[in-house]
Each structure stands twice: as C-alpha cells, then as structure tokens.
Records
---
Amino acid sequence: MPFRIATFLAASALGGGLATALLNWHYAWLGAWLGAVLWLLLDAWRAQRLLNVLRRDAAGLPSRGPGVWGELSERIRKLLREREQQTRQAEDRLQEFLAAIQASPNGVVLLDEQGRIEWCNQTAAGQFGIDAERDLLQHMANLVRDPAFVAYLASWNYSRDVVIDAQGPQQRSHPARLSVQVHPYAGNRRMLLTRDITSLEQAEAMRRDFVANVSHEIRTPLTVLAGFVETLQNLPLDAEERARYLGLMSQQSHRMETLVNDLLTLSRLEGSAAPPATRWTRMRALMAQCEDEGRGLSSRLSAHGHRLSFSMDADSEIAGAPTELQSAMSNLLSNAIRYTPGGGEVAVSWRLLPDGRGEYAVRDSGPGIAAEHLPRLTERFYRIDRSRSRETGGTGLGLAIVKHIAQRHGAELRIESTLGKGSRFALVFPPARLRQATPLSAVA
C-alpha cells in the first residue's frame, strides 16, 4: 500500500512538473490531475488484465511484476502450484488405495443413494458377472437378480450377510458361493463386501462327512460286538459256538483298532513338522520289509497265495521319515494284495527314471477300477465297493494316508487302472530326495 501511494503521488508530481515546464506554473494543478488520472487508468488496466487471465486460464498468469498487482499475481501463482501439488498427491493416494482394493481377494462395490454402481473392483465384477466400466451407474438389483440378494439389498437390515451363488461366467462349470455383507456409509450410500466361501463350505461339508463316516465305521463293529456280548450272556452255547462268536468279536475289535490307528496316523501327519531331508534310508531295506509284510498278508488272505515279485533296478537311498515311507509303500502293497484274487499277480518295483526321479510302483492283476472312481480314491472313507472293503479289512483311509505322506516328501501319487486288467499305483520321488546308496563295505 505505501508503494501504491508513493507511485500515485509520483505520477501526480510528474504530471504537474511537465505542465509547468511546457506551459507555466499556473497549469501545474492541471498536470498533476492528468498524471493522477493516467496512473489510475494504468492501474485499472493491470487489474482488468489480471482478472481476465483468472477468468480464462489461471495457468497463464504473468510473471511477477512491480506493484500490488504483480505481487498478487505471484501469490496466486504460488497458491495454485501448491493446490495442484496437493491435488496430485491426493490423486496418487486415491490411485494407491484403489489399487490396493483391486488387489484384494474380496470384492468391493460402492453404491450411491439410489443403489447405482459408483465403483467396483475386478474381483466383485467377476463374482457378480458385471463389467466394471460399462455397468457404472446401473442399478445393482437389476444386474444381480438372485431373489435372496435383491430382498437383502432392499431390506436395509444389514446386521448379517447373505449367501448367494456367484454369477460370473468363469464360475458356471463349478458354481461358487459368495458371502455378501452391506455396510451403509455417508448417508444412504452403501458398500458391498463379497467373500468367496466356496472352500469354507466344502471344508464344512467334508467335516460333516468325515464325522458321519467315522461314526458309521465305528458304530457298525460296536453293534456287532454288542450283539455277540448279549448272545454270550443270554444263550447257553457250546464250546464251538462260543469260540466262533469270540473269533468274530476279535475280528470286529481288530477292525476298530485298525480304524483308530489310521485316524491317529492321519492326525499325526497333518499336525507334525515336515519330514527331514537329511535322514537317509536305504531303499533295499524298505523293499525287504514290504516283501515280508506282503508275503505274510498274502498267505493269510488266500490259501493259494499270490504270485509276488519284487525288483530293484538300482539300490538308492531316500531322504525322509522311514516310518512314513514304509507306511506309504506297505499301504499300496497291502491294497493290491487285498483286492487281487488268490493266485493273481502283484509286482513291486523300484527304479530310477531318466530325469533323476525315483519310482516305487505296485502293479496287480486284480479287477481294476473304473475311470470315474480314480479322482476320488484318495478321499477319506471313499470306497468303490463297501462290502468288499469290509471283507478285506480295509478302513478307507489307506490311500488318504499315502497321499499325505507323498505330499510331505514332495512326491507324486500316480494311479492307473483299467477294468478287468488290473491297476498300477506309483510313488514318484523328486531327485532332491534321492542319492546313490553307500556300499556296505565302505560303511564298515
């Protein structure tokens, strides 16, 4: 302000001086007045120019000049630069936030007060079968027609979630289940959070099936035992009948014991640490124990026995838990013997594959397995023929145990079978778990 007063007085004095020099001192007042008017006109022109620039495009502000208008222009330029920088930072933070929501495994949909889509991430778009860009400002209830969802969205009672089927095209062959929870915000706006609970529902179904299967498997022998006990208590039996009943009771109790042991084995496998990769066991020793167990089982199950053969292309050492490896190999061999009729062939082999992996395989000449059963053989308590399984003493957990042991050792369980031509079960171990066996003389 002092500068403006000084320039105004200077312009007036300059006008008066020029008038005195050109005319005479009687016209000094006129020159002073004209100088003041010219200063005011110039000042108004500079103010109007600044105003016009602000009206058109603030980015075209002139650089800092003299006077209050130059100072004001510079300060406006500085404020605009700061505001632009803040806007860019806010935009960057918004993009980071949206990118984080896009990366979320859960779906997010923002609805306006009328229930129209303002924004949604790709996860929600895939789950609901909508287009994240094309369907903006479309009513959500018009795009997702599930009656339970439409009623839930219109109820405004969002204290619980609603479970619906996914609508996305990628889910049609394997329908997924979605949990949708709505959260109101900013007045009547709403945020939809979706979560894929397919695996949770499958796990819950598996848990129910598992409990039901265990209860059924244990209840059956218990019922038989209770019946035999009641018979022994209430009926006069001769020695031969009593011995037969006691033998059947022993068979049922052994069946329950086997079932409990298999369940404990599964529980131990699922809850224990990974097997060590530094503990080595000779494959020849594992094969020898399998042979002893296999020949003993064959003689007990069939008077004619089975044609058993055991072959090793190379004596190797394998890293892992010896008891688990022995359990997996014995399970495959015992299954082959149990389901192969007497006189049939069961061949056990160990070989090193060209790529360095090792394969333990059991091939039998049994009845074979239909192709539709193969993907489910490793499920707990899954049986192709329940009556046949009970006759052979199977619990339905053997292949589930083998699968867990294989996974813990980085191995792959392969199953091949043809109806009427037998089956082949193989465990393929990675090269990292194998090494050449140390000669016994070197060890000594």
---
Amino acid sequence: MYTANGHLTYCTNIHAGESWSAHFKVLQTFLPAIKEQVAPLQRMGIGLRVSEEASRTLIQPAELAAFKDWLKQEQLYVFTMNGFPYGAFHQTSVKDLVHQPDWTTNERLSYTKRLFDILAVLLPEGMHGSISTSPLSYRHWEPHNCQERRNVATQNIVAAAIYLRQIEQEKGIHLHLDIEPEPDGLLENGDEFLDWYINDLIPTGSRLLSAAHHLSDVEAAGILKRYIQLCYDVCHFAVGYEQHEEIIEAIRSEGIQIGKIQASAAIKASMSPLREDRNQLKEVFNAFNEDTYLHQVIAKTTENGLIRYRDLPDALLDVDNPDVEEWRAHFHVPLFIDNYGNIASTQNDVRQILSLQRSAKLSDYIEVETYTWEVLPQALKMPLVSSVAREINWVKDQII
C-alpha cells in the first residue's frame, strides 16, 4: 500500500507452491483476505516471489495477462519481487541450497532476467521496480576460491545491469537489482557489500561497459548505481551487530541507493555466566532448531569480537563458551513481538530503521519478510492471515 513514507508490502515467499498454478491458488486464497485487514480502501502492494519453475509459466503472455487482470480486479499491484530463492522454499530442506544456483552461473542470470521481464509487465505506470537477489554466492562453498567466484559473479551482475539499461531504453521502465547481504553469503555485511561495490563492481562494470558501449568510467558508474542497488534486510544486518546509521551513511555517501528495506527481526539473548542459565537458554534456542532453513548464529564475545556459526546446531554445541556474552540467530521471527521469555528479538533494530525511514526516506519500498511461519515453535504460531496483517499494520504504525 502507499504511505507518505514509502510503499509497504509483504513478501509472498511465505506461501507454498513452486508451480505457478499452485502458487497462484494460494495467492487467490490469502491476498484478498489480508488486504481486507490492512488496506480495505486502497490498493495493496505485493512483494511477489516466483520460483524458477513458476516463472517459466508466468512469463507466457496468456498467464501474465490473466494474473494482471486478477491484480486489477482485486486492487493489488506488484512493485517488488524476491528473486533470492530459485527453487523449492517450503516443506523441504533448503539450508545453503537457497543460494543455488549462484551468480557464477548462467541459470541465475537467466532466471533473474525472466523475473525482470515479468515485472516490466506487472509494474504500475510511473513506478520503478525492484528485485532482490542473493549476495553472489555462499561463502563456505569452495572457500579457497572465493575471489574467483566473486569475479565471475560480478560479471554476471554487470550483464544484468546492461539488460536493465536496455529495458529502460526500449520501454521507459526503470528496474533495479537489489543485492541482499546475509550471514555466510559471499557478501555478508555492509562493509563487504561496499568493498565489493567499489572495488569489484564499478571497475568490472566500467571495463565491460566501455568495451561494449564506449562509455566513460563516470558514465559506467552512473549506470551501475542506477541499476544495481542494495536490499537492506534488517534481520541480516542485526545478526551481524551492524551499526545501522553508520553503514547507511557510508552507503549513501558513495551514491549507492537502497532499492528496498526488508523489515525483518532476528532472535537474540544475553549469555549468563552461570551454566544453569545457559542450559535453559540452550533449551529455548533448541525450539527454533529446525531442518528447513539456515539459522546462522553470530556470537559477541566479552572482548567485542565475533564468533560465527554456520547453523544453530553448531552454536548449541558451544553454549558453554565463557568468552561469549550474546547470541544473535538468523531466524525471521514476527516483528510485533520483542520478547520470548528468556530470549528477545531484534525488534529495536527494525524500529531504528523505520525511524530513519520516517526522517530521511532511505528507500521508496518496504517489504515485510517474516517467512518462518510454518516452522515457528508451536506456541508462537497464529492464523496466517491475521499474523501477516498484524505484521504489516505494525510497520505502518511505525512509519506514519
């Protein structure tokens, strides 16, 4: 929905259905009901997630026209898409496979181009379109070969930028690709994103754009900054103990745009020095230990260092580490709850970003991304329609 401080939506990656027919049926069930609770008198935006399999069906003109007609009928509109998960995202073990295929492959590039072709048709006139994507690759695949994979991935990102420039030249539609850093991604945090953007993307893009289109370095940098932006997932940055104002100032000072904010919260806990208390925390965290998604943990030490665990089970094995004073875990919990008894959420990080959004308009787009409803501990589960509506309304209350 439109607000004075940005268009607000939620991401449909919470809804199952890898084929387009299955996913569309779920959307037809849930979207009108959610709209009734959050935007009964105006159009409601959608952050659409379409799998690779579904995208091959939806790109067909008849399917795309039928979906567009349904959106108009229901007073819905699509302005952003989630292009991070390529394949199955529900009722299967996703874990690090969410990065596969990564940006070193033609499959990832082709899928992303197809999503942009879909978005170019669905996007309301006068709006720019956003697609978020993975942070190039997964860090722990071939760790000895990270720079070479980063180089290949960067060339494919530049190819995407060239494609988006072509779309805008031919159709007058501005679309941008938003890179989403996350723990254990090849780009893990704000500093790594900036380093890659300045020292890899712009030099590589300038060389390729100069060779293909005879552009100066300044012109090439301008093109890259228009079409390659940042997806600021608050949960991911909070898990890494990022100082939001500092990293946002650094990003904006380089002329890099935030394509969208993903409003999401992680879980966290202070670690008592008492073994009994730590054992209780271990039991609480273990309730969040499930087999579908990666739940990376970053621990803060008494010396302000960081210890990184690839998944929650790895952290649970180290719960008695006396040097650790806090855990933060990548588990997208509901935004409207900040306390779970012995543990808490990073809701304050979300509040901080939304406060900055009110005062400084960080981005035109905000997307709620709590996708773990199916795998939440039973005590936290609620009916999906009311849960999503409560999320959206909570964010709306923070930004108006």
---
Amino acid sequence: MTPQVRYEILDGLRGVAAVGVMLFHLSIIDLPLAPHGYLAVDFFFVLSGFVLSHAYAGRLRVMPLSDFMRLRLIRMLPLSVLGLLVGSLYFLMRFYVQNYSQYGLADITIGTLFNAALLPKPWTSPAPTDTIFTTNSPLWSLSLEMLMNIVWAAFFYRARSSILLLLVLVSAISITVLAIENGSADIGATWPTYPGGLARVGFGFFIGVVLWRYRPEPDRGGFLPEIAAVLLIAVLFVPDIGPEFDIFAILVVLPAIIYLAACSDYRKERALFRVAGALSYPLYAIHVPILQFMVGFMKILHLEDRRAFVAMLAVLVCIGIAYALDRLYDRPVRRLLTQAFVR
C-alpha cells in the first residue's frame, strides 16, 4: 500500500460527522436534532490520527518539525480565525445593540486574541455557558487536535505500537471515569472539563495511529462502507441513554467505523465523497456563529413559533457558506500561505 492510496469513504464520513455536529448545535435554536452529535468530535480525533499517519509518518523522517507545524497551522488557521471573527462580531453586536452579552468586552476581545492562536482563553468567566473558546466554542477540539499533532510528530511518530496502546489505555480509563462523573462524554470545552478533552483527544488520535499501522488492504467488494455510514449515523442520532453509551461509542464503535472504512476501496460516488470531505472543516469552523446570527434574526423577526423553518434555513445557509468558503477562501489562502512559508 502506498501513501497515494486515498480513503474516499473517510471523506464522506467526515462530512456526515460535520453535519451531525451542526445538527447537535441546533440546540441554540431549541431544536437539537442529533442528541449525540458531540461524539463526532471523537470521530474526528480518530480520523486525524489515521489520516496524519497516512500522510506524514514516512515524511517526518526527513521533514523538520517546524515545517510540519507550519503545514498544520496553514490547514487550521484560515478557517478557525475567520470563524472566531464572525463569532466575535456577533457578541460585539449583541453587546452594543442590546447593551448586554453573557461575555464582557475583555472576554470577547482578549479571549479572541488567545483563541486566534488556537490557545484556550486562560481564565474563567461568570457567563452561564463559559467556554475556553469564547466566541466559537467548537474550536476547543481544534486546539487539542493541534496540540496532539505536535506531540505525536515530536515524540511518538516512531514509537512502538505497545507504547501507543499504553497511552490509549490510560486515555480510555480517564474517559470512562470522567464521562461517568460528568454524566456524558460531552467534555473538554470548559476549564472544569478540560481534562476530559485531553483524554478524548489522546485516545482518539493514538488509536487512529494504531489503526493505520494495522490497516487492511482496501477491498472494493462488500457493504462495509454502508455499514460504516449507518453505524456513524446511529451513534450521532441515538437518543440520550446515559454515559455508558458514550463510553462504548468512543472506545469501540467509532474506531470500528474507521477500520471498516479503511477496509473499503469505494469509488461509486467519488465526487460526492470528496465534496462532503471538503465541506466538513468549513462547516465545523463556521456553523456556530452562523446559528447565533440566525437566532438573532429569528428574534428580530418574531419567528420563535417557526423554529423548524428557521432550523431548516440555518442548515441550508451553513452548508452554502461552507461550500463557498472552501472554494473561494480556504483553498486560495492556504495555497498562498504554503507558497510563502513552507519549503
């Protein structure tokens, strides 16, 4: 198997997971549609370990760590910074128009400066839903993913699988304890639950690396892609049934989905899979600020009794903007930054 192998089913599943997160955050409109959408983050962590190993495990033998860091920052920062700016604009408008916001000006402005560097806001605020990424909360997972990328590239990309499995075991125990203590595995976005986020990214990323090391040769036959997709959708949309389900999904089901997808060389709808994969990161980075603006418009236009319509419109707007950002902003900006900063 060569590094040029493209796991196209993973692109499609990444798009499904991003939509699941967006539907989970429709709770902003009081209409959550994916009760376990937060588990898509764990899917992304496993996927990151698998895909980065596929792309960089061989190259890191000759690539300076600084170049690897530049490539990862170029991949993450254009959209994450844009999402933060849009989110900060929302909170600033709310602060000045309503003369009220759950965050003060220092939280919004200085917090955004930290967050723009993918660093968590290093203080807690009295806001009812205070998060370490003040104006675009989902970016907490990108911060931890970037941290884990650097740790892996600096210390563990050549480590024995037994060492990686030990890290996986420690992380799995931590997830189990912290999820039961919290009542769910929706942990990591706040300072009190931050250790849970570290456990989630530690388990997900390193089990993804191990899965890549023992990856099968892709086979075009069978129904494994469909099984993987159905399992992922089931995980995201199953009703809330307690932390035990979260733990089982994170530790068993999500890694199994990645492995099943890696078994598949599925080419019937290549364009659809690639579009879904391309939309996933813009959608993840921008959807919460857009939903917040949609809530504001809903209240201004007095559409509170038409939440289903607003939610449907919000989904279409988020997907449309994500598509435009991928084509017109993210790709050109990353191309320019790569030419300027990467040898």
---
Amino acid sequence: MQERRQDRPSRPRSLVLALGACAGLLSASLACAQSAAPAPAAAQPAARPAGPAPGKKPSSADVLAAAKPSDWRAVNPEQALQMELPSGMVIIELASSFAPAHAANIVKLTRAGYFDGLAVIRSQENYVTQWGDAEEDEAKARKKPDNLGKAPAEFSRPLKGLKLTPLPERDTWAAKVGFVDGWPVAVDPRKGRAWLAHCNSIVGAARGNEPDSSDGSGLYAIIGHAPRALDLNITTVGRVLQGMEKLSSLPRGTGALGFYEKAEERTPITRVRVLADIPEAERPRLEVLRTDTATWQAWLNSRRFRGGGWFVHEPAKVELCSALPPVRSAP
C-alpha cells in the first residue's frame, strides 16, 4: 500500500514520502534527524536573558491580564479560514508573507467550495493530521478551480525585510530563531533565508516527490512533538489558532503512516469558509499576542522563570516551539 501511494506524487497521500520519512519507528526518526540536522553554527548565541527582579514572579496569566490592547494584533479575516467538523470549528491563519502562492491558492480553493464534503484522511500518533481528497484516481478526484495557479516550492523566503524578534536560546535546527508577527521563524543568516518552523499546530501543504508538487489542496497540521526535520522540505502555510483539540483528538488511522483504510473511518469536513465571507455578526474575531513588545518579553520570562510554589526547578529558558504566542477572542 505504501508503494502504491508513492506512485502518485501529485495526490495528497503522497505526503507519505515527505512526512513518513521522519515518522514512525525510532530508527527512522534518528536517521532522519541525523541527515537533516545542520552543521553547528559559527555564530555565538545571544546573551542569556536576565532573570526577573527579586520578589513575586508574574505568571503568564498575570502578564496577559496586564497587557494593553495595543499588545495584541487582529487576525486578518481575508487570511484566515474556519473549518467545520462534526465536533466543532477549527480556525486557521494563513502565513501569506511566507507562502503567498499557497495562501492565495487555499483561499481560491476555499471560496470555490473545494474542501466542503472532503475529509480528514490521516491521523498519525505524535505526528500529523491530514485532510483533503482521499481519491487516488485522478479521473475521479475532486475538480479544482480553473484559475488555480501552480504554486512553487515556498520552503523559505528572503530574510531581508522581516522584523525578527530573536530568541537568545540556542536552537538545534537553525543558526538563529525568533518570531515575526507571531510566527515561529528559523533563520540562516549566511544565506539570508528565513522559514516557518514545524511546531505543533503549524499547517503545511502536502506534496509528492517533486518539491513543487503541492498546490494547497492537501493540508496537514502538526499534532505531536515538533518534527523540525521537515523544515525546508515542505511549504508551511499557516497555524491553527483555535480548535486544535478537534484535530489532535481524532482516532488514529490503522493503515500505513496513520491513513484511514475505510471511508467510514474518516472525519468528514462539513465546509470551510474564509473568515471574511462569514457574516460579521457570526464571524470569529481572534487576536494574537504581538511578538515585538515589552509585554512579549515579559511573557517569555514568565515561561523561563516560573512563579508560584509548585516548580522546584526553573528551566530559565524556552525553545521556539514551546513559546508560541497566546491567542484570544477579541474583547
């Protein structure tokens, strides 16, 4: 079955080739990590952040409660989707500044009703949930809009022009990491490139053998520990902002790499809409904590230096995928 799926690199199931290579058995994961890990960066990490002032340490909740309205950014409804599952809603923000061609395609597909009535076709433990068209016969597959453009491989983008708020902590997978407008970003300063990291809740576009074989019609969300070996190998297109539990709690597929072998095992997608197309009175209004403010630095420190009486050992550090910015409904 696995070989049959790999024979069709243009179909969503061919994500097996890219995602399956780094999942499953421990030996496969170790081999993938060893082959994907970059050489140690020559640059020295930034200085370790200073601890909080003596006295009561503010918790994350304390920091957020004291945040000003200007510390939050509104999610653009033209660049966000609402996916309706039988269990509830999933809200996804598209990363148009990192994957503009894919984001444009996903909006076109959504407005054409392409995803409506399709299904979640895969759920692999500690890895991904994938959705799209399960049909492997091209002649029977769901028709895509005529104006859907070919999307190039958008694995990274120029670093120039990005306002990166760096993390001082060292990262295993990149010379430098940080946040841009709330997105977790890894950077190669020598090449002048930046990319979205594969953290939990990040959404990517399924592809086949060819790097440019994705078009946004097959999508997946990371539901397990961050598989950073996928960075620079697949186009990351967004992040689940709300409803992550609807995807991570689905029954695991029993087929190869977590695919559902029977149609009745799949979770149907009722419909997907662009938020801007939902009547304003019904439209979810979400905000993401800005990552270029003093409040953001205070929130990071609340994660490094834990307040309260429960913690015996303070980590005194964070890492990129453990520090995704909070999301809230707009007041």
